Every structure is written in structure tokens, then in C-alpha cells.
Amino acid sequence: MINKILIANRGEIACRIIRTCKRIGIATVGIYAPNDRNSLHVKLADEAYCVGPGEMGTGYLNGDGILEIALKTNSDAIHPGYGFLSENHDFAQMCGNKNMIFIGPSPEVIKTMGLKNEAKKIMAEAGIPVITGFNPQDQDHASFLALADKVGYPVMLKAVAGGGGRGMRVVESENEMSESIDSAKRESLSSFGNDTLLIEQYVNSARHIEVQIIGDNYGNVTHLFERECSLQRRHQKVIEEAPAPNLQQATRDKLFEATIIGGKAIGYCGVGTFEFLVDPDGHFWFLEMNTRIQVEHPVTEFITGLDIVELQIRVARDEQLPENLNTIQARGHAIEARLYLENPDFTPSFGKLYHLGLPEEDKNLRIDRGVIEGDEVSLNYDPMIAKLIGYGSTRDQALEVIDNGLRSLRIGGPATNDDFLLSLVNNPQVRSGEFDTKFIETNIEDLCPRQDASNQLLAISAYALMIKSGFSGKGHSPWFDNTGWRLGTSLDREIKLRFNNRIWDFTLQGNILSLREDDLSFMVEGEWAGLRDFHGKIDQVEFFLEIYCDQVDSTVFTSDQKLRLKRISEFHETRRSNNRSGTLTSPMPGVIVNVLVNMGQEITEGESLLVLEAMKTEHVIRAPHAGIVKEMFFSLGDQVSEGVELLTIRK
Q: Residue 369: which domain range?
């Protein structure tokens, strides 16, 4: 029996597992790193313990510490969720050695399927098509270059022990190979502790379709239909759905057949996923198998009515699969949108969620989340904070549920990708279901329109924030006057806001608000109605704003727009920015993992200068213009903060 489960994970998936455990009467034990002490999963678990050492996420990889807590709390099983130790065969074996149930497949299966080259070999022997590829014994650049010539460009580099898009690079030409190898190896080593790569043919115009599988200890293996996962950015899924749109039934049936053959070939027990590439003609190739629950499992739960976490637990306690699994029909359509903390340029965002307004859940909208209002989100973990899962009897209905859910989001704090998700679900090709894995990359400019706002909207927002900062705007006494009245003259008030990488410098004198550099002036008035609603007029044009703010950041909503504003200065006499011309600053906190230029080197626009790692993902910093590297303010391995000077470039 399983009466108590330790969840060796955090965030959204830990909360998701706890929800099922509460429903079926199983007690839960949470773990946390010191900086996670007040996280939602800690609050939801029946009991929780710190697993160290250190403030970062290393504790979640501390197998010995996790097992010690499991034994101390008399837990019967460990659920690894996804990420961290979920596909670590050594940890699964450690659990077995301590007579602790590991909710997942056997260590042997995890190890075999975790090595992509071994997995492909087994599937090929079972008669399942695999992509042409090689796992060179010698991992030097020359070997990969020779194999790329043999396969033909473009090629894909992959971490042998990888998953989740980490350690993957598409290489279009020989000129890109060296940098791509080094980058993929660093990212793979950081994420999986193994920097071995394989190289394979890259299939153009392919879709990424996966099939949910479940098996038990009695030789029963079945599928739970397919999921469409082609909408990806940097090889990481953004939107998933089930069933896959516009997929020929003959291809679907062959994918199901291949999945069952593959699952039985390895004697699979537990929940897992077979991932395939499918070309426009319906030909498909095995990519990899994930021996764990997937982020996108809720779409399968919606169309089947099953609880996949409950099925995992039932199989782990040696139950046979329910007989009715083979007769379940997929009903309706479900779509999942991953809500990430990201800036518009897709660099990681972080900070305090000073307001978290998520849509109300109902029978057609599910929210899986791992944060609550007031949480401080760091760069130590994956940037996904929640998932919106919409359901409808048709795909169009499911898309509308997601669209409405995204539009109702009210998040104050770090930037999120909600505008990007909205752009995706309303794109005509996405609506028609005609897309492949390169769709986002190919259409990135259309999918990421530049956020813009009128001078009037920015001005009335600035005025509202001025009033918010301690000036009531009410009463007839000069002591309550927001004009800055004083005897004999009127004091100018100033606010500087950053929007669209520009500083907007506003000055208020009386009821006249001026935008300095544009030499514009506006007549303004307005007042707050409660903590978040502002009604104002600017040159007699009415604005109704919903504003969420803390001391520095503000998010302004109108009926059809959202602005993220960062306050640069409080009210004071004007001081011009002292930024140094030609200085390149860090777009995010991170670690300098590679330096590609030297002092005095001549560079071209767009040239790679250095590589910054944040959230286990590498970000290449490129030259904004041609010039000569004049100064460098860092060394390899340095931890840098957002906005810190990295180097200066003399034109």
C-alpha cells in the first residue's frame, strides 16, 4: 500500500501531485530549498522539510537527503514529478535499495531510454522508424564536422542524456558548428551532468507529435491518444493540444501501434511518452521516450476524463491497469498554454509577483500553478509559473476558452509571455492547425509585434502614478493639492518611466503634464477609485485604467492594451541620464559561461560576444553595432546582475 508520498519536486507539478493525493486520501511530504521555504507546494503539503545545502535548487538533486527525509517521515513512495531526478536511474535505484517505491519505471528502463542512442537502437530493432544519426565516440569538433557532411545540413545536435529542449542546437552550416557544439555541451553538462552529444538529420516541415503511454507490471501496455507539440520555441513547447489537428487517421493509428510495440519491447511499467516527428506525407520517426509524466499531461486528462497521476500511483502499488482503458474514447479538444516569466525578447524575467490575477476555473478551464501572489520568483528554476488548459467540444471552442483566459490575466510584477501566447492562439495558421516545429521561428516577427502605446496613454498613466505616490488630489487646502503648490510659485513634479527601451520623462506643473523630449503638453485630471482603478482625462479624452504597481514596476491595463512601466526616478528636479555611450549591459542576471572576443578586437554588427547562462539555458549576447571592444568589465565565470555593464564598444 501507499499511504504517504514524498514529492521530490517543487512548483506547479508538486502542487498538481498533491491535489490528486488529497483526493484519494494519500498524505504528502514536501521538500524545499531554503529560498523556497514559503512556496505554494510547501503550504499545500501535509508536512514539508528543508533539503539542502545552499539557497539554490541543488537540494532538489540531493538524492541522499531526499531519501533521508522520506525514511524519517515513514513515506512509502517517492514521486519525482518531472525535471530534477525524474529520469535519474541512479536515484530510482537508490530508492529500490532502501525499499522505497519509486513512482516511475524501473532504473534499467530509465537508463536505457534516457540515452537517446540506445533508445533509438531498441526502437529500430522493434521495427519503428528512427532518424538517421550518429553518436560519435570521439566528441571533438572534427568528428561532428565529418558526420555533418555525411548526414547533410541542416543537422541537429542533441544531448544524449537530455530532454526538455536543453542541449539541442540546429546547425545550418559548417560555420555554425563549432559554436553550437560548445554551447550544446555546456548546457547539457549544466542540465544533466553529461555533455555527450549525438548528431542526426534535421527533418524540415515536420510536426512534433507524442503519444501518452501507460503500462503495468503484468505486461499490459496501452496508449492514451496523441498530443500535438509542434508550437515550440528554442525546442521547448509553448502550446500543446489533444488530439492533434489535421492528422490523418491512418497516421494516427500507426503512431499508436508503434507506441504499443515500443512499450512492450522495453517491458514498460508506468506513465511515459513516445515522441515522434511526422512529415507532411504522414511518414514518422521515433525521436525519444520520456519516462515520466509530461508538463502537457492535462490535455490528455481533459479528453479522456482520467487522472494520470492517480494511474501512476495505482501502477506503482502493483495494480493492474483498469480494463476499460482500452475502450476509452477521446472526446472533445483540449489546449494548454504555458505561462512563462519572460521578457518580450524571451530573456528570463524574475522578481516579486505583487499581483497575481488568474482567471476563474470552471468545467472548461483548468489552471495548474506553482505560485501565489507575493511570491519572489528567482532565476534558479524553470520560468513556467502556471498552465492554462482549455477544453471544448471542438477545437475552436477550446481556443476560445484559452483566448478568454489569457485576456483576463492580471499579473503585476515580472514580465510574462501572455501577449505572445495570445498572438499565437489568434494566428490564422494556428487557428487552422497548419503549422510545424519551425512555425514560431519562421513567423517570430509577426508573432511578437512591438508593444506600442499612444503618448496620451503613457501620459495619463504617468499622471496616475504621480498621484499614487502620495499626492491625494483631493481637498481644497494647498496641503492636499497635487499640483505642488507653494507660496509665490509652483513646483515642477517629475516622473521618469521606462517603456519600449526608452525613458519617458514627464513633468507636471499645475494640471499641465509635459513630455520633455517630444515637446508635448497635455491638460490632465483624474482620481483613483480604490487601490487599482483610475479614471482620468487628458485633453478631455477619458481613460479608465486598471493599474497594479509596487515601488518600481507598474502594469497598466486598458480594455485592450497592457503596458509594463518601470519607474526610473521619483519626483525630483531634472537630472539627465548619465549612461555611457556605447556600453552594453546585461539583459538579465546570469553567469558568464563563454567569452568570444578580446579587448581591442574589431567586431561586426550581430557578432557573438559572450554567452550568459540563466535558468539552465544559454543566451548569446551579440554586438548591437560594429566597432572595437574598448573595455570589458567581467571575467569568465562571473555572476552578473541585470543592467550591469558588460563591455563598451567604440564605433
A: 332-427
